[in-house]
Amino acid sequence: MPRLAQIAVVAFIALGLSACGFALRGSYTLPGVLNPIAVIGDDSATRKDLSASIIRAGGVISDAAPLRLHLTAERITRQTTSIDSRAKAAEYTLFFELEYQLRYPSGLPATPERIIRLRRTYQFDNTRIVGKFEEENTLIDDLRQQAVAQIMTQLTRLNADDLTPELDTPTDAPSAAPSTRSAADATPR
């Protein structure tokens, strides 16, 4: 096949892939409404990984951003999945749960709170304990990266129409709505 024909075939394939929306995994483009954005939460590895991912996607991290991504809770738990003949753990399942929400600087929510739940099962050999703890840490890092990838995917699909409008009422003003507490709730305990 002549060289010019090879170049034409490669160009045609590249054009076809880009036209169908194909993008390499991990390559994101943030919508304009999220640029700049603030990432709020504990000084955790997840926050650092998410901030780095936003920057790689061409985003800007700024404390003065009109929207803030709050990482409200992160939980990692381990549960015994199976035991061996000596009643020792033979398999564990790691559960990773991350809650997050986009909010305005006033604290009002811009989107509903979302929860990402991931799990991973691994074998545990009591004769190789040191290596298994390293494996567990590697799995936790992998779960964290998956959660960051899911958040980035959801952020790239966000439109301005998806955001709840910010109200002009201050967040510390008393509510004008009547109380819905019952008499049983009002009694001192």
Automatic annotation (TrEMBL):
Signal peptide: none annotated. Residues 166-189 have a biased composition (Low complexity). It is found in: Cell outer membrane. GO terms for biological process: Gram-negative-bacterium-type cell outer membrane assembly; lipopolysaccharide transport. Residues 161-189 are annotated as: Disordered. It is a lipid-anchor. PROSITE patterns: PROKAR_LIPOPROTEIN. Pfam families: LptE. Keywords: Cell outer membrane, Lipoprotein, Membrane, Palmitate, Signal. GO terms for cellular component: cell outer membrane; transporter complex. The keyword Membrane applies. One of its GO terms (molecular function) is lipopolysaccharide binding. Together with LptD, is involved in the assembly of lipopolysaccharide (LPS) at the surface of the outer membrane. Required for the proper assembly of LptD. Binds LPS and may serve as the LPS recognition site at the outer membrane. Component of the lipopolysaccharide transport and assembly complex. Interacts with LptD. Belongs to the LptE lipoprotein family. This is LPS-assembly lipoprotein LptE. The lineage of its organism: Bacteria, Pseudomonadati, Pseudomonadota, Gammaproteobacteria, Moraxellales. The gene is lptE.
